[in-house]
Every structure is written in structure tokens, then in C-alpha cells.
Amino acid sequence: MESLLPGSFPQRSSSLPSGGNYLGETKFKVGHSPREVQVYRCRARKILERQCVVRFQRHHSGFSVKKSTIYQENNAKFLVHAASGQPFESESGAYNPESTSKSVKNALDAFYRFSRPHTVIGTALSILSVSLLAIEKLSDISPLFFTGVLEAVAAALMMNIYIVGLNQLTDIEIDKVNKPYLPLASGEYSISTGVMIVTSFSIMSFWLGWVVGSWPLFWALFISFVLGTAYSINLPLLRWKRFAFIAAVCILAVRAVIVQLAFYLHMQTHVYGRPPVLSRPLIFATAFMSFFSVVIALFKDIPDIEGDKIFGIRSFTVRLGQNRVSLEQLIHF
Questions:
Q1: Any idea which UniProt keywords this protein has (predicted)?
Q2: Which of 303, 301, 306 lies closest to 245, judged by CA?
Q3: What is the pLDDT of residues 274-309, one digit of tens each?
Q4: CATH number listed for the domain at residues 114-332
Q5: Half-sphere exposure of 175 toward its Cβ, with a 13 Å CA cutoff?
Q6: 218 pLDDT above the threshold of 80
Q7: Angle, CA of 321, 327 and 332, to the nearest 5°
Q8: Rounded Cα–Cα distance for residues 133 and 163 (Å)
Q9: 0.70 cut: is pTM over it?
Q10: Which residue ranges make up each domain of the chain?
Q11: If we measure between CA atoms, which residue out of 9, 38, 31, 29 comes closest to residue 21?
Q12: Secondary-structure breakdown of the chain: helix, strand, coil percentages, each rounded to the nearest 5
């Protein structure tokens, strides 16, 4: 066998550039190794490519040499990818917009679940409603009012994320039974990530309260921090969520007293510069929220009865039974 490619590339000295006869002179003899054959084939492809470019330039003189060079480079890239067995359009480390968008969406969804949005919404609505009680005349609805509300809501939501985040950090095993969709329980967040989030948000909350310069706001944050930590953290004489009555007192103190009085005084004294007078609407709102907070403290543990039983959390639902708590609360409600 004198040649592996007989007659495939006929010699045409008139149409080839200098060195064009090389293909005709390249013969694959029996004694050549497979590696040498592969090298010869690559050279043959390159020569064919050059020949196509030259013919393309002659028949289409309107195209520039630059386009021919790009054409040649693209073909060379194609040959390299074809020889390596890799897809032509995929390169390692290439930017993928869809993958990036999906990663961002997943990260936002995990943080959304971590922040416990129902508590965020409840906190924001409570602060807004009690802030409205400080309005005495129509002119009080001003940019000053909205700025004061925004400061209070931002600081309180950061503290809220600290409290619910700390609760998840100390309840990972319980949440694997009761709430496996939460990021820490599902493994989406590591413990170090959870610690970083709750630490950052607690620092930012106190920092904002200090920068605003409102003592009612700062004390509301501090008392919420203390009660939220004592409620969840597993240390001697703490982790008050284990005891149904003390847990209910913590919830009542924050939701019914701290939120109502402290944020009202924030608007009354810091924003409007008025004396700290407790109005009748504020007293009524505090009394109503006290009753409502007791209902929250009783109802919130009904879906968690299974995990609470396993890990020794003596909530009202565990002590009295799920059906009994639901029936009694519906009657009283």
C-alpha cells in the first residue's frame, strides 16, 4: 500500500501557493507509526484549509484578508476541538447566564425561608400600625414620619432575623422532623453560614439603632435581643422555650408590650419631639395584642408537636394534646 489517501488531493501546481505540492509529496508508507500517520493527516487538513481560503479569496475578491484569516482561525479551532473530542461551543469556565441566574434565585429562596417571612411581615405591620397611633394631625404625615417608620422597621427586621436565625441554629435536629424545608435543617446552609448571618444582622441592628439615636428604639432592640437569646440558646437556666409558661411570657413581652410601647415612644419622642404620653388608643392596642400574643403562643406549637415530643420541648401542645389545645382556643377565641 503506497498511500492511504490515493488521489484525494491531486497536484495542481497552478492553483496552489508555495509549498502546495507538499500534500502530493506526502506518502504514508507501511513502516510509519500511528503517531506519524496522525501528524501527516493534520498537515493534510491544514493544507486543504489554506487551499479553500485561497480559492475563496479569488472567487470573492470583495472580502478582506482579515475575514479570510478569521475564517481560517475558526476552522483551525474546529479542527482542534474535533481532534480533542470536546464540544466546540463549550469551554471550561465559560460564563453561563442561566446557571448564574438559577444560583442567585436559589440563594434568595434559601434566605427567604431562613428569615421566616411570616414573622417579618407581622413585625413590619405591627410597627407601622403603632406608628400611626402617634399621628395627631394631618401635617404629621410627612417625610419625617416615613423616615422614622423606615428606621424602626429596618432595625427591627434585622433583629427579627437574628432571633429566628438563632432559633434555627439551636433547633436543627428538631427542624429536621418539624420543618425539614428550612435551610439549616435541609443542609443548604452550614452552621458557620447560619452563625455568620445571625451575627451580622444583630450587629447591623444595634448599629442602626445607635446611629438613629432613638433611646426607645435602642431599648426595644436590646430587650428583644435578650429575650430572643434566652428563649432559644441552649445554656444553663436558659432555653426558655422548653417551658410553656415562660415561652408564652417571652412572646407576650415582645409582641404585646415592647413593640407597642417602645415603637410608639420612638415616634412620639424621637420623631415628633413630644412628651411621652400614653394615649387611650395605645392602651387599647396593647391590651388587644396581649390577648392575641397568648393565642399565638398556644397555636404556634401545634404543627411542631412531633419534634417537640422527641426532643423534650414541653410546649402547651405537648402537655395538653394537639386536639385539646385547638378546641379550647377555638372556644375562647
A1: Chloroplast, Membrane, Plastid, Transferase, Transit peptide, Transmembrane, Transmembrane helix
A2: 301
A3: 998 888 889 998 888 888 777 776 666 555 555 555
A4: 1.10.357.140
A5: 20
A6: yes
A7: 125
A8: 26
A9: no
A10: 22-84, 114-332
A11: 9
A12: 75, 0, 25
CA distances 298 to 182, 245, 331, Å, are 22, 10, 13
Which residue(s) pair with 314 in the sheet? Answer: 243
Residues 51, 15: contact at Cβ < 8 Å?
yes
Q: Give whole-number Cα distances, 175 to 29, 199, 295, in Å.
A: 73, 21, 22
- Of 111, 201, 114, nearest in space to 159 by CA: 201
**194, 169 Cβ separation under 8 angstroms:** yes
Runs of H (alpha helix) within 96-243: 97-114, 117-132, 143-170, 172-178, 183-186, 191-212, 215-232
Separation between Cα atoms, residue 229 and residue 312, nearest integer Å: 19
- 220's grid cell: 426595644
- Contact partners, residue 158, CB within 8 Å, separation at least 6: 201, 202, 204, 205, 208
Question: How far is it, in rounded angstroms, from Cα 220 to Cα 159?
Answer: 10
CA dist 188 and 168 (Å) reads 13
How far is it, in rounded angstroms, from Cα 325 to Cα 49?
A: 83
Residue whose cell numbers read 491544514: 46
Looking at the predicted structure, is the pLDDT value of residue 111 above 80? yes
Beta bridge partners of 243: 314
Helix (H, G, I), strand (E, B) or coil at 137: coil
